[in-house]
Amino acid sequence: MKKLSLVINIVIGVAIIVLYVLHFTSSGKVTNEKSEVNGLESIKTEFPSIAFVDFDTLLFKYDFYYDLQNDLEEKRNTSEAELNSRSRAYEKEAVDFQEKIQKGLLTRSTAQQLEQQLLQEQQNLLQLRDNLSLQLMEEEQVMNRQIVNNIMEYLKEYNKQHNYQYVISYRFGGPLLFAHDSLDITREVAEGINEKYNREKKK
Question: Any idea what DSSP says for residue 53?
Answer without folding.
Answer: E
